[in-house]
Structures are given as structure tokens and as C-alpha cells.
Write a structure and sequence with these properties.
There is one protein chain. The protein has 330 residues and is an alpha+beta fold. The longest helix has 17 residues, at 25-41. The strands form 3 sheets. Strands 1, 4, 5, 6, 7, 8, 9, 10, 11, 14, 15, 16 and 17 form a 13-stranded antiparallel β-sheet that branches. A two-stranded parallel ribbon has the order 2-3. The protein has 2 domains: 25-151, no CATH class; 160-325. The protein is 17% helix and 28% strand.
């Protein structure tokens, strides 16, 4: 579903029109809902907006501040709790010369576009220091609407936590993650997860968005090798009941030992890696996998070495999710 905002008190272009529309509390409520949708996407809790925070002090001032703050959402790091993205950028969604540049609210550098340059050709909101009690005009509503609509395409980069290993030589024993091996007769496979969304209510992270074809998965190994990457669709426990070669969630067995049976995993793709050089995968299978994760499927991955050698190989990885918001809501 493509993103098209729908504002109740507006003309067909989504604008409050002077002489036709009176700015109402419901307009602020709609903007607040749109802001909170994006706060949840950026792993932040919803904000409670009251009349004293908005029109009673200055026209929509708290809402305007929140829209700007979304452009620099707090990010997490590898090992963070929760395992939030390392990068969260909003990208310019309009098909022009600036498409897919990072949207900022400060002077634009290389690869960036300034929100206010696009909005009104200045460096800030119209009437940026309006005093409390001054009348709310149509522009005070229309500018935040337009600004939040432009925050409809994102790019999140998330670490993959390779927290478990499954080892054919010890098929009933959990093993260390972050390593793969294949000597031609026995294998060590790495299993991990990425936190595109969490299990809270309301959900923090990516929901009601469409993964774009430009999304990519990145794997780095410390030894030259060939690998295959799979989406693990079985439930896994990475803390107290970790998977083994024979069982995905002991005592529940894989359809096939090693986790590559029907109903265990689906293949995303393969890579030929050079030591220390990140390999990337950007395919329709990855796009589909990310969409399935966003829509509620397991967020787990399995990586195996597909060539053979004596080395035990260390791997790290991350996922870049490029996405567009779906509507409704705004």
C-alpha cells in the first residue's frame, strides 16, 4: 500500500484553506497521531500532547518541535538493550533530484536535503517565535502536515545478533554463535536475529510499512568463504533454551537436522566473501523476507558455510531496511 495522507479538515490537496477551514483541536489530534506513529517506528514511546502544550502556548508549537526531533531519533548499538537500530534516517520521498537523500533540519551537507528549504525556503517554521495567544493560521497547520508527510520513507540499519550456533558433531548441545565451519563432513552453523520490531503493545519498531527493493543484508567474515543465508521461520529462544543441531526449541525438532528442512527455513541467497570485506545481498527474496518479518513472522536468520575448509570462521552482519509507510493511518 502506498503512502497518501488523509487529513479530515482539509481540501483535496490535504491543506487547511483560509476562509473555508477553521483550525480545530481535531487537527492537532491528527498531527499528534501521525507523530506518535513515527515515534513508535523509531523505538520511542508515544508522546501525550495536551492543549497547554500546543495552541494555548503557541500555534502547534509542541507538535512542530516533535516533528523536527524525529529527524534525529535516538539510536542503539550492537549489544544495546533493546537492540535498536544503529541508524535511523528519514529519506526524501519525492521523485526529484533529491530523492532518497537524508532529510535534515539543519544546513544540508552531501547526500542531505533540508526540510525547511523544501517547506518554505527558509531555515524554520513560519512564525517561529509567535507568542502564546496569537491566532492559529492555516499555515501553522499546513506546514506540520506537509513536514510529517515527507517523513514517510525511512532507512533503518540494524545489527544481526548471532547469538547461537548449531554443531553437527554435538547435535544435542547448544553452541557458540558468530562462527561457521564446514570441513566437508561436519558443520557449525550460526543463528541470529535482528530486532525490526519488538513484542510490546503498542509495538516499537517497523509495522505497517512496505520494505523496498533497495534493502540489503551485509555479512563480513574473517576468512575467504562462500555462505548461504536463510530466514529461520521456526520459533527460537536465544537465552534459556537455545537451539541445537537436532532441535530448534528443545524438545521440538527441526524437520531436518541442521535446520534446512521444509518448514524450518527459506533460502534468501548466497555470497562469496573475501576476508574482512563486507558482502551485500539485495534481492527480491530478501525484500520478501523483510516484509514477512515486518508483518509478524520470526526475525531469525541462519548462516552456513557452503564451501569447505579447515577454518572456523567468524562472521558479523547487519540489515539495512529501506521502507515506505503504508496508510492509513497518517
Amino acid at each position: 500500500m502506498s503512502y497518501t495522507a488523509t487529513w479530515t479538515n482539509a481540501n483535496p490537496a490535504g491543506l487547511a484553506q483560509p476562509g473555508l477551514h477553521w483550525i480545530a483541536r481535531s487537527d492537532e489530534d491528527e498531527l499528534a497521531q501521525a507523530i506518535n506513529r513515527r515515534r513508535l517506528l523509531t523505538y520511542q514511546s508515544e508522546e501525550t500532547f495536551t492543549a497547554s502544550q500546543t495552541v494555548a502556548t503557541a500555534p502547534l508549537i509542541a507538535l512542530r518541535e516533535q516533528i523536527v526531533s524525529l529527524l534525529s531519533a535516538p539510536t542503539g548499538s550492537l549489544g544495546g538493550s533493546p537492540a535498536t537500530p544503529e541508524l535511523m534516517d528519514w529519506l526524501w520521498p519525492v521523485a526529484d533530484g533529491d530523492e532518497d537523500k537524508t532529510v535534515v533540519a539543519s544546513p544540508a551537507g552531501a547526500g542531505e536535503v533540508n526540510l525547511f528549504d523544501k517547506l518554505n525556503g527558509t531555515s524554520g517554521w513560519t512564525d517561529p517565535s509567535v507568542a502564546g495567544g496569537d491566532s492559529v493560521r492555516a499555515v501553522h497547520c499546513n506546514e506540520p502536515r506537509q513536514a510529517i508527510e515527507w517523513q514517510s520513507r525511512g532507512r533503518w540499519e540494524l545489527p544481526i545478533y548471532f547469538s547461537a550456533g548449531i554443531f553437527s558433531m554435538l547435535p544435542d548441545t547448544p553452541w557458540l554463535g558468530e562462527h561457521i565451519a564446514n570441513n566437508g563432513s561436519d558443520e557449525l552453523r550460526a543463528m541470529g536475529f535482528a530486532m525490526l520490531r519488538d513484542g510490546t503493545n503498542p509495538t516499537l519498531g517497523l509495522t505497517n510499512v512496505s520494505a523496498r527493493a533497495s534493502s540489503q543484508l551485509e555479512i563480513t567474515a574473517d576468512t575467504d568463504c562462500q555462505i548461504e543465508i536463510y530466514h529461520c521461520i521456526r520459533p527460537l529462544d536465544f537465552t534459556t533454551n537455545t537451539p541445537t543441531w537436532n532441535q530448534h526449541l528443545p524438545p521440538s525438532s527441526w524437520a531436518s537436522p541442521g535446520g534446512l528442512g521444509s518448514g524450518d527455513t527459506t533460502n534468501i541467497g548466497s555470497m562469496t566473501l573475501s576476508a574482512g570485506v563486507a558482502g551485500t545481498l539485495s534481492t527480491s527474496a530478501l525484500q520478501s523476507t523483510l516484509q514477512n518479518m515486518i508483518d509478524g513472522m520470526e526475525q531469525n536468520l541462519l548462516v552456513r558455510r557452503s564451501d569447505t575448509g579447515y577454518e572456523t570462521i567468524n562472521i558479523t552482519g547487519k540489515i539495512r531496511v529501506d521502507f515506505d509507510l503504508d496508510t492509513p493511518p497518517n
